[in-house]
Amino acid sequence: MSKNKLKLAFYWAASCGGCEIAVLDINEKILDVVQIADIVFWPVALDIKYKDVEAMPDKYIDICFFNGSIRNSEQEHMAKLLRKKAKTLVAFGSCAHEGCIPGLANLHNRKEIFTQVYIEDKSNINLQKVLPKTKTQVKEGTLEIPEFYDTVKTLGQTVEVDYYLPGCPPPVKLIANAVDAIANNALPPKGSVLAPLKAVCDECPRKRENKKITKIHRVYEKNPEPEKCLLEQGILCMGLATRSGCGAQCLKVDMPCTGCGGPAPNVPEQGAAMISALASILGYDEEKLSEKDVEQLMNQIKDPVGTFYMYSLPASIMKRKVIKQ
Domains in the chain, ordered, with CATH? Predict the structure, then answer.
């Protein structure tokens, strides 16, 4: 291992694994990584044990790319361990950055999730209604698995994070830019989001005319006009409230932005910002709405949390649904 090369680490917590694939999607850019760095920890690709990381001196790793939210005690342990061993910790992807899809589990708690998955799900045969336990005694000894938490947290809610690389997964261009910044020792101030300072709407080629809408369509219900803003066609699009860097790729194939880039610059609460923007165009022109009219308009949004907080519930002001025990 070269003393002159950077030491990189990758870790995968509560996520789908797409961020691991995104690293390979940089294609020949991976050769630049090999030139400047040695990978010292990457469980998905290298046979390196946790004990090997524990044996490393503090700050031995130059940069650690951590993808995934914090769902259980093992992931929390690794977040704290890698924070201790790494000089620079990057929240890589939407799950580490905002909580992402795993974070929608914050609409429930551990008891509700376990009951649904292990008891009520019709594919199960669990007559004894056995639920997972962190420790189980067998004749060979004690079996131990990580503790499953009630609440999904972001990486930044667990340890101090130096940089955020957004996206589900991060776009190849943003990853390549980050590699270049690392190679040239040109990273921005700590705490920065490694993405452009504009919203997805600013990258979208569709035309906006600020027209009001009276009906909301789900994606499969309408064939959109190819050049007109999707939101102005009644298709919910999060581009107004979402940070750019993706090149508006979804919009270019008639799919609305769902918000994976996290909040746009100067937007502290992505979901609230989008709801506010929608409220400004949703309604009947120059008509006074009755309570029934307002209710009918609101009921067109079939899944408000899944729409406005698909990627950001744990990072939002709400963080989770309050569940009375």
Answer: 6-101+152-183 (3.40.50.700), 108-149 (no CATH), 200-308 (no CATH)
